[in-house]
Write a structure and sequence with these properties.
This is Hydrophobic protein. The protein has about 55 residues and is mainly alpha-helical. The protein has one domain. It has one helix and no strands.
Length: about 55
């Protein structure tokens, strides 16, 4: 009974970690798209100037 519970617990932990990693991958892709859009907006919106679309 105990080995079965340990296997089920391990499966649950691995499933949760896999889900969290997948969510982080989608978050990283979203940040990359926003970052790339910033370059497009900066180059198209300023006419070649050194303007920034963010305030850092």
């Amino acid at each position: 009974m105990v080995p079965l519970l340990l296997v089920l617990l391990l499966a649950l932990i691995l499933f949760g970690a896999g889900f969290a990693i997948k969510v982080l991958w989608w978050f990283a892709v979203a940040v990359l798209v926003i970052w790339l859009l910033g370059f497009v907006m900066r180059s198209a919106g300023t006419g070649g100037g050194r303007g920034r679309w963010y305030r850092w």
